[in-house]
């Protein structure tokens, strides 16, 4: 390690050095870092007074940055970058879910990238959350609505949760929407009730809550993307879906003509 006398704390200097080694490939994705005693010994040569706690704080900083993953009883490892999913306007193409060989959006998206896709689904009737009542026609906060909760895995790794809300009346009109049955996925079933004219997505970023981290098995230091999607149909908004997506597994790619 280069001798640095710029006033940074020992833990910052250690974190900076390890970060540089990760960025330059000296430490490779998936590689196990030396144990804490070895790091104390190694860094103590240039920085007398380095303690076990100093190294722990440096590791914790890199863990928060998403560069390191700690595994109970195994040590600290350089994080492996996961394959990304690409979200964009084209994913909603009618030819995908309404063509001669209709596919669900996730099935088509995963197939284009050579990824295996699996979903675990459950349904329930719940009080409408505020964000749903704000967007779903004819619904007030607390009104009973259907929800289809899905957790998606790409190549066996959980990448997102998707909770779709729609009215009891919509469920009565189309039991297939509630059951998740039929070709073309959720958008095709909504379209069968009333043609989907527009898809609206609202995207924000944040750190996950404790329950979300547990549900999605999110590594520490990984932010998530909230995506609220509305299907606007000829008779109004029929479906509100909230996605919670691991930010390290998503790239949002949009290409579209400039509006007049």
UniProtKB/TrEMBL annotation:
Gene3D superfamilies, per database record: Chorismate lyase-like, Winged helix-like DNA-binding domain superfamily/Winged helix DNA-binding domain
InterPro entries, A to Z: Bact_HTH_transcr_reg, Chorismate_lyase_/UTRA_dom_sf, Tscrpt_reg_HTH_GntR, UTRA, WH-like_DNA-bd_sf, WH_DNA-bd_sf
Record's protein name: GntR family transcriptional regulator
Keywords associated with the record: DNA-binding, Plasmid, Transcription, Transcription regulation
The organism's place on the tree of life at top rank: Bacteria
Pfam families registered for this protein in UniProt: GntR, UTRA
Keyword flag Transcription: yes
Domain HTH gntR-type: 8-81
Keyword DNA-binding among UniProt keywords: yes
Top-level taxonomy: Bacteria, Bacillati, Actinomycetota, Actinomycetes, Streptosporangiales
Position of the signal peptide: none
CDD domains tied to this protein: WHTH_GntR
């Amino acid at each position: 390690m280069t001798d640095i006398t710029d006033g940074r704390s020992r833990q910052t200097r250690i974190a900076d050095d390890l970060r540089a080694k990760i960025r330059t490939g000296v430490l490779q994705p998936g590689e196990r870092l030396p144990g804490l005693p070895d790091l104390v010994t190694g860094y103590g040569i240039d920085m007398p007074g380095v303690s076990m706690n100093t190294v722990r704080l440096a590791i914790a900083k890199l863990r928060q940055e998403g560069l390191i993953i700690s595994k109970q009883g195994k040590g600290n490892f350089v994080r492996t970058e996961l394959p990304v999913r690409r979200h964009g306007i084209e994913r909603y193409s009618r030819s995908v879910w309404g063509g001669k060989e209709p596919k669900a959006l996730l099935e088509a998206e995963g197939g284009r990238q050579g990824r295996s896709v699996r979903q675990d689904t459950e349904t329930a009737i719940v009080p409408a959350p505020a964000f749903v009542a704000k967007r779903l026609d004819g619904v007030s906060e607390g009104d009973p609505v259907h929800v289809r909760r899905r957790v998606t895995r790409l190549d066996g790794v959980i990448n997102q949760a998707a909770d779709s809300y729609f009215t009891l009346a919509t469920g009565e009109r189309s039991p297939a929407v509630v059951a998740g049955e039929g070709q073309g996925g959720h958008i095709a079933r909504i379209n069968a009730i009333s043609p989907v004219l527009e898809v609206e997505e609202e995207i924000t970023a944040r750190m996950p809550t404790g329950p979300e981290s547990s549900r999605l098995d999110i590594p520490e230091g990984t932010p998530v993307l909230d995506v609220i999607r509305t299907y606007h149909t000829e008779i109004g908004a029929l479906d509100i879906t909230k996605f919670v997506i691991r930010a390290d597994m998503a790239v949002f790619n949009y290409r579209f003509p400039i509006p007049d």
